[in-house]
Amino acid sequence: MPELPEVEALAEFLGERAVGRVIAAVDVVAFQALKTVDPPVSALGGLTVTGVARHGKFLDLDCDGVHLVTHLARGGWLRWREDLTGAKPVRPGKSPLAVRVRLAPDGDGRAPGFELTEAGTQKRLAVYVVRDPAEVPGIASLGPDPLADDFTPDALKAILTGGRTQIKGLLRDQKVIAGIGNAYSDEVLHVARMSPFKIAGTLTDAQIAELHEAIVTTLRDAVGRARGLAAKDLKAEKKSGLRVHGRTGETCEVCGDTIREVSFADSSLQYCPTCQTGGKPLADRRLSKLLK
C-alpha cells in the first residue's frame, strides 16, 4: 500500500510532468472506483493541470479548480505512460486498469498520461472529482500531517494523552495522524525501540519525544530516498528501505536478533524483540489458535 512517502513522491513526479498540460480525457474503466457524480468526470476534459498535492495518502490533481483526487488503497498504483495515442480501449473487468488520464499531445504528436491500476480481488481504489478536496470524506477527517511544521512533540503529546489504544493501531489511524500505514508504523516503532502493543496513554514525555523524532526522521528519510525516482521504481525503493516490515525471519540490522511477526485476520506486523520488547516475543494470536 502506498503511504505518505510514496504518495509524496508521486505528487512531485506528476507535478513535474503534468502541471501546465491540458487534460484530453479521463477514461474510467473500473466504474466502482469512481465515488462521485458531480462534477462529472467528463468535466475534466479541456482543463489544465495547475497543481498536484498530497493529503495524507490521497493524491490530488488540481485542474483549473476541479480536483481529481485518488486514494490508491492497498493494491493500487499509478503508471506513467509517455504516449497513450495508441492505447487500446480496455473492457471493464479484463485488466487491472481502473482509470486512464490522457493529456493533450505534445508538439511531436505524443500524448502522455497516466493510468491508475489495482491488483488483487479487493477493489478499494477510489477516485473523486470534486470542487474542493475537503468534499472527500477521507480528507475531511484526516488528522495532522506528520511532516507539517505544527506537528511538534507537544502536538503528539496532546494526541496520545489519555489514549487507551495500542500505539501501533493509533499510528495507522488516519483520523489521528495522516499518512502512516502498516509498513511505516512498523518502521517508526522499531526506530523508537517501542513495542507495537504499548498503550498510547502510558508513554512518558521522554518516550513521546523519542516517538516524535522517530516518526519525523523515518518519513523524511523515506521521502528523501523516493524523491526524483520514476513512479515505476517507487515500490522497489520502499521495500529496499524497510528494516523490519516484511522481513520476518531476517536478522535485525541494529542488534542481530531475528525479526518476528504477529499475524491478524487481514494484515501482520513485524518487530524486533531485542530492540522493542525487552527480548520477549509477542503472542501471535493466529498461531496460538493453530496450536490449540
TrEMBL record:
It catalyses: Hydrolysis of DNA containing ring-opened 7-methylguanine residues, releasing 2,6-diamino-4-hydroxy-5-(N-methyl)formamidopyrimidine. Keywords: DNA damage, DNA repair, DNA-binding, Glycosidase, Hydrolase, Lyase, Metal-binding, Multifunctional enzyme, Zinc, Zinc-finger. SUPFAM superfamilies: Glucocorticoid receptor-like (DNA-binding domain) (SSF57716), N-terminal domain of MutM-like DNA repair proteins (SSF81624), S13-like H2TH domain (SSF46946). It comes from the Bacteria. Residues 2-93 form the Formamidopyrimidine-DNA glycosylase catalytic domain. Its cofactor is Zn(2+). It holds the Pfam family zf-FPG_IleRS. Residues 243-277 form the FPG-type domain. InterPro entries: FPG_cat (IPR012319), FPG_N (IPR035937), H2TH_FPG (IPR015886), Ribosomal_uS13-like_H2TH (IPR010979), Znf_DNA_glyclase/AP_lyase (IPR000214), Znf_FPG/IleRS (IPR010663). Belongs to the FPG family. This is DNA-formamidopyrimidine glycosylase family protein. It comes from Microtetraspora glauca.
